[in-house]
Design a protein that fits this description.
alpha/beta, five-stranded parallel beta sheet, two-stranded antiparallel sheet, 5 helices, about 50% helix
Length: about 170
Amino acid sequence: MNPARILVVDDDPAMLRTVERVLAPHHVVASAEGGEAALRQAASFAAELVILDVHMPRMDGFELLNRLRDAHPELDAIFMTGVVHELDEPLVRSIRERAFYFIQKPFERELLLALVERCLELRRLEGENQMHLARLRSELASARTFQQGLLPAPSARAGSLAVAWHYEP
């Protein structure tokens, strides 16, 4: 499997380094300290997955994800939070924002790796499915063209006799 391009966004430099250390041996990882830095980074770093903190100053993770998806609608996301009180609200919102998962800090290294790998696997399978559907559509169009080529002209005349037909598959 090719390494994925992952953008990690958090306002805590220690958390950025931690996530980078966990993911960098397996993937191409870029990090940004906060939302504005992430938007600048995303302009030149074509991420497939973004791992972002929910609570950041000036721009929370939800607003950042919406802005990132304006330019990259197919971007997958995993939200992180260190806030333990009122955990349900950001969890529900992350589900509504179509995030792949919501993880609470601090997290286990293996949990993060497993989530990232599962997210990337589902992304790969979706891509394969789209390629398969495109191939099927192309094959159906070719078959339709071939079958219609076998049919005679829709009308013909032989002397005073006129013949017309209509084919409906």
